[in-house]
Amino acid sequence: MKGKIMSMEFRKGWKGFIIFIVIVTLVAAGYAQLYPSVMEDMEEDELVGAELVSIEIEDDEIHLYWVSIEEMDERIEGSVEYRIVEDTNQYLPDPREVNVTSYNYHTLERTDDNDERYFGVIALIDGTVEKPMGMASTEEPVDPVEELMDTPFVRLFSAGREDLSMADMEGFISIEVYSWWILLVGVYLAYISVKSVTTDFEEDRLDILLSSSVSRKNYLLEKFSALSLFVLIMHVIVGLMIMLSVYSVGETPDIAYLIAMLIAVPMFMVIISVSMFFAVLFKRSRTAVGVSFGVILVQFGLFATGHLVESLEPVHPFTISNYWDYNSVLLDGVVYPLHLVLLTAIAIIFLVASMKIFQKGDIPS
After folding, report:
1. Average pLDDT of the chain?
2. Which of the two ends of the chain, N or C, has the fewest CB atoms closer than 10 A to its terminal CB?
3. CB-based contacts of 198, cutoff 8 Å, min separation 6
4. For 132, phi and psi rounded to 5 degrees?
5. pLDDT tens by residue, 339-353
6. Can you count the helices (H) and strands (E) in the chain?
């Protein structure tokens, strides 16, 4: 009876499916909620009042200029002087006084080309009241986002896109969610795909199922269809929740977040079919799960490190991650249909191979 195995799979696993969907949705959508605070933390790394104090470095001199406090606050009354302090730490934990002047500029001697020096300007009103003005440094200003993007971790998960930036919500979500999505979801799918088949072997249910007008071909086809439908539903929910979460923090909830999730479905169909292939091949949960996990981890590792190690770049076409180009969707709005067709074809090939092995093999007693 068609549909029996598929409905049985949902009745048996619906609780686990719901729990997993809730967990991954909270994790994925939660990163969008972190975006404003992460950007705020990065901005806080900039020197305080850097926009009020400028610095010019010549061969042997350092020139400091700052906005006068009268320009900042018209209510200032009384005499004003400026105290310049310096330290080798940007937080000025042990500042050394350099000079006190009534002008809004000062020249210092440059001692060492490699000497990292931080300067602070403090306004002294009537010689008693201190008002911090701002800071400057001999070091070239570094964009904290660019500095983060230059770390090995981010380069590893940027999938070779040099135009990816965590300063944008799309880049942030790409690195924090999509880059590791195949591991989070793929490992879970591999496990349940193997267990959905091998449990029937190990608990002697297969004879009963196959004796109730269910063919071996339909058995595997309906198992595959049930798991694929679960994957589709999960990605629709997660994609929509990411859009909603992005909107809730004041960013544009682009449909690209949903599309980037949906084009991952063929990739996970490959993982389901490969895992079922190992399930019917080995007929033991432990062996099939171990081999499936190994395949996922190895191909993901080769894909990721291939962007760091030039000699590994030729292996990219042999990894399924290479054909889930979520960055093209998020950054360029482009979907490659041939990639989806190729992944779907690979899934079908492994599913057909599983059916061939299953039809010829014996059922363990």
Report:
1. 85
2. C
3. 279, 282, 283, 284, 285, 288
4. -60, 135
5. 999 999 999 999 999
6. 13, 7
pTM: 0.74
Report the sign of the C-alpha dihedral through residues 133, 137, 141, 142, in that order.
Answer: negative
Q: Per DSSP, which regions of 49-167 are E strands?
A: 53-57, 61-66, 80-87, 96-101, 105-109, 118-125, 129-137
Residue partners of 141: CB distance under 8 A and separation at least 6: 46, 47, 50
> Residue 99: left if φ>0, alpha if ψ -120 to 50, beta else—which one?
beta
Per DSSP, the three-state class of 122 is: strand
CB atoms within 10 A of CB 216: 19
**Residue range 126-178, pLDDT digits in tens:** 877 888 888 888 876 555 555 555 555 566 666 667 677 777 899 889 888 99
Angle between helices 265-282 and 337-360 (to 10 degrees): 20
Contact 307, 155 (CB under 8 A): yes
Q: Take residue 271 and report the two structure tokens written for it.
A: 């993982």
Terminal C-alpha separation, the chain: 24
Cα separation of 363 and 356, whole Å?
14
Q: Which residue has the higher pLDDT, 143 or 273?
A: 273
DSSP assignment of 282-319, as one string? H--HHHHHHHHHHHHHHHHHHHHHTTT-GGGGGGGGGS
By CB neighbour count within 10 A (0-12 exposed, 13-18 middle, 19+ buried), where does 77 fall?
Answer: exposed
Q: Which amino acid, one-letter code, is at 317?
A: P
Nearby residues of 245 by Cβ (< 8 Å), 6 or more positions away: 29, 30, 32, 33
- CA atoms of 239 and 221, how far apart (whole Å): 27
Q: What is the DSSP letter of 96?
A: E
